[in-house]
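Mods, move this if it's the wrong board.
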Amino acid sequence: MSIMNLRLPKPDYFLLAIITAAVLASIAPATGAMVPVISWASKIMIAILFFLYGARLSPQEALQGLKHWRLHSVILTFTYLLFPLIGLAMRLLVPDVLSEELYRGMLWLCLVPSTVQSSINFTSIAKGNVAGAIVSASFSNLIGVVVTPLLALALMSTSGGLRIEASSILDIVFQLLVPFMVGQLSRRWTAGFVKRHKRLKLVDQGSIVLVVYSAFSAGMREHMWTKVDVADIVKLVLVCCALLAAMLWVTWHVARLLGFGRADAIAIQFCGTKKSLATGVPMATVLFANLPDVGLMVLPLMVFHQVQLMACSAMASRYARQAT
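Not the wrong board. Structure tokens:
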């Protein structure tokens, strides 16, 4: 095959924008009068983000898809039970492999919901159970607004070395769950508009980029980069790769051992191993608003997000070739 015939993968512009925001905040963080402006802008954009989530999710489709309860229960078990247990076990990596700050980020990564769009896209490419992926990924994010903060309150206050106030749960409710419910209640008037206007996706992505800039700006004001070096980042990447590889192997083989067919096993594998950057970053900035190194809290999630995109993209393509 000639070099001219090789197809280079399309760049992930969303990820590039996130990286740019992190780099920009590291060079020119928000300071002085810009701090409250960026803070309030982030809160408003997060509310809009979860309002749009609510407007997109059809309750009728979700209830219909819940009939396949075995599939969804297995995926949720991986997302909210096995991942957190692995996160707790990673405490053994401190301090030889992971610093205390990066361990907190890894534990947080293990608590957040599954992705929605990429889980569905990869399941579709791989000829898996798309309907099951839609319901599982959506339901994971829906209950994650409540389950993830509760898990953080229970686990990160003990193993993560953080003090999380119960009032933080109320902050999550008002900033994330209330806008989501408003979006659900307004679907009669907004669902069609949101579905027709695909460019609203840019609002979703723009909110995440702004939140990343705000989080890293806060970290820079607290000199977060003095707490890690290049070796720490390399170790973090390797740990994320190992975590994803282990979960990809476990989800596939457990699904097959439980008697699921190929299409269901593919949905379980992609939905059960993914972690949502779009939900995890905004939630972290709300839940850990008073934490000085919140930028380091979301760094492992950013790394894992890119690793899972590359790995699952290759796997989905291989599954598709096998199916044909």
